[in-house]
Write a structure and sequence with these properties.
Helix content is 41%, strand content 22%. With 271 residues, it is α+β, with helices and mostly antiparallel strands. A hairpin with a 2-residue loop joins β8 and β9. The radius of gyration is 23 Å and the shape is globular.
Amino acid sequence: MLTQTAGQEPPLADDRPVSQPGSLERGIDILLALSGASRPVSLAQLCRSTGLPKSTAHRILGVLCGRGLARRAGTGYLPGDLLEVLAGGPARGPGARRAVLPYLLYLYETTRQTVNLAVPSGLEVRYVERLYGHDRVVSPSDATDRAPLHCTATGKTLLAFDAGLRQEFLARGAFERLTGRTVTTLAGLERELAQVRRHGVAYAREEFAEGVSCVAAPVFGPAFGSPGGRIRMAVGVAAPAYGVPLGRLAIAVRGAAQAISAALLGEQTSR
């Protein structure tokens, strides 16, 4: 029998079994695997990256989704809205929001219409900043800050300049009709996206909501090996479909997007 002398440390128990990770550690592993994902991550992919059994991962994902830390996106999963808010969001990295907001405010003061800053979230567009007045146009996205990619100007912008997102989205082949003007065919959408790349601006004329048109342009940010960066987000303006010249809005929107891109690329260079 082992005895312990007063004042001595207890012997090390080297033969103790190593404790298995609990639910908290497993949940953290899943959140880490989801962090930064802009495309849905399948359950199988999460199991491979975390080493968790399918039943365990599925159970924990159910809890995370219920608490807003993860969310379902088709057959996969993405970081939840609460997690993105806690993390600061894709447009709120160090210096990013400070660089972006003055140009969004100037765009609102110039147009007096609803100004949106959008990023991809799975196969949707998510609005991470919005500036508007009391007479803002009403949109189905107001309650959720999300919208389809194919029938919004910000969504078309993201599709046009993000080849990976475009390939994944266009693989669906047919797209939901929201109004009588919604482009629902693959060929029709591909033609529009080619025009967006050619002119650097996207339009959506009553394609998402009756009575609402919008214009958007791409914002580029730092990317390794690419001096001009890659698309990070889209700046858009939503306005009444009648009485507001979209061509004039397009000039203002494109100017704001170019200024934000220059600010983001300039901040990266100065670091």
